């Protein structure tokens, strides 16, 4: 879903179908927005955006897209695509809005926007515990963690300036549904800032997050002796819900939104059912906004078996 100023696009582009025969994986990726200059995808969980420097053979989204463009796959032919490049990245387990460009000139324009921190990026996250305040700002420098490839940490001495604004959307017993607005673009920024506050994102094993288990929520939960409980959430519970940029050609402001994926919808359903809290004094329950998870329900019990 995309918005230009106040005009909402109603067209539903056909999804992009990708496969990795080497690993037996298949993806049908929704298109959130497209025009002659831009293509925004709804990135699924557990898919790299770019090649892994430590394991270049792992499937990655850009590699699969470029392969299909080169061989003239139907989705690429339909769009007359000859060039596609990502403007930013999302982590392997993170879902949501990923913006691509269809020419080098638009890539340069948008890269400058991201370099100047002009785009507004909104994330949704389920975190462990209740934060001390319903809204807060984390202003802590971030740097690579020495001796731990791929890990980051708060490092006041050697880190780069990093700032994130957080807002509570909904509170549960032991968990909080939050919106995060990173004002800088550091690797793992929201994950590191929340872990620094000792409120890691649910399922974020790298930074101390635990999976979400129905047995911890539902009174009297029983599991057959020959079964192993599968978590409601065992990936990083982080979703890139909205991205606002200035269009590189028209100069219009566009906002691209991604709906919550099923695993997060199901998790919120069970939290509301078994871990709901009454609205705290002086903190009125606010109205739902599209895409923040407050306006969505999912009654499919099968969602407890996550992939």
Describe the structure.
By secondary structure, the protein is an alpha+beta fold. The chain has one domain (2-278): 2-Layer Sandwich (Pseudouridine synthase). Helix content is 16%, strand content 28%. It is built from five helices and 16 strands. The strands form three sheets. Strands 1, 2, 5, 6, 7, 8, 9, 10, 13, 14, 15 and 16 form a twelve-stranded mixed β-sheet that branches. Strands 3-4 form a two-stranded antiparallel ribbon. Strand 3 (16-20) and strand 4 form a beta hairpin. The longest helix is centred in the last third of the chain and has 13 residues, at 262-274. The radius of gyration is 20 Å and the shape is globular. Residues 4-10, 280-288 and 299-307 have low confidence and may be disordered.
| CATH-defined fold name | Pseudouridine synthase
Could you state the CATH homologous superfamily? Pseudouridine synthase
Helix content: 10-25%
- Based on CA atoms alone, the radius of gyration comes out at 20 Å
At the first level of CATH, what is the class? Alpha Beta
Global outline = globular
Mean pLDDT: 89
> Which regions are unreliable across 5 or more consecutive residues at pLDDT < 50?
4-10, 280-288, 299-307
Structural class: alpha+beta
Q: What is the CATH architecture annotation? A: 2-Layer Sandwich
Got a strand count? 16
SSE sequence, one letter per element: EEEEEEHHEEHEEEEEEHEEH
Distance between the termini: 25 Å
Provide the descriptors you would attach to this structure in a database record.
307 residues; alpha+beta; Pseudouridine synthase; twelve-stranded mixed beta sheet; two-stranded antiparallel ribbon; 5 helices; 16 strands; globular; disordered C terminus
């Amino acid at each position: 879903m995309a918005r230009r100023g106040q005009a909402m696009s109603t067209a539903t582009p056909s999804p992009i179908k990708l496969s990795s025969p080497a690993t037996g994986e298949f993806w049908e990726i929704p298109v959130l927005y497209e025009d002659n200059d831009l293509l925004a995808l709804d990135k699924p969980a557990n898919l790299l955006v770019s090649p892994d420097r430590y394991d270049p053979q792992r499937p990655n989204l850009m590699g699969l897209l470029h392969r299909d463009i080169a061989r003239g796959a139907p989705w690429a032919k339909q769009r007359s695509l000859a060039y596609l490049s990502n403007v930013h990245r999302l982590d392997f387990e993170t879902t949501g809005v990923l913006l691509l460009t269809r020419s080098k000139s638009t890539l340069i324009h948008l890269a400058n926007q991201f370099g100047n921190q002009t785009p507004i990026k909104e994330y949704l996250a389920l975190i462990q515990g209740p934060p001390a305040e319903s809204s807060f700002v984390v202003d802590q420098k971030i740097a690579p963690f020495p001796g731990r490839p791929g890990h980051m940490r708060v490092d006041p001495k050697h880190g780069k300036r990093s700032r994130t604004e957080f807002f509570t959307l909904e509170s549960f017993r032991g968990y909080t549904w939050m919106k995060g607005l990173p004002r800088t673009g550091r690797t793992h920024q929201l994950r590191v800032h929340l872990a620094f506050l000792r409120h890691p994102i649910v399922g974020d094993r790298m930074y101390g997050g635990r999976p979400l288990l129905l047995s911890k929520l539902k009174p009297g939960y029983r599991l057959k002796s020959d079964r192993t409980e599968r978590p409601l959430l065992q990936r990083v519970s982080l979703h890139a819900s909205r991205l606002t940029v200035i269009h590189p050609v028209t100069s219009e402001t566009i906002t691209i939104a991604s709906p919550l994926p099923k695993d997060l919808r199901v998790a919120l359903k069970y939290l509301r059912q078994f871990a709901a809290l009454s609205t705290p004094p002086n903190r009125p329950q606010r109205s739902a906004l599209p895409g923040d998870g407050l306006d969505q329900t999912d009654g499919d019990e099968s969602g407890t078996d996550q992939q």
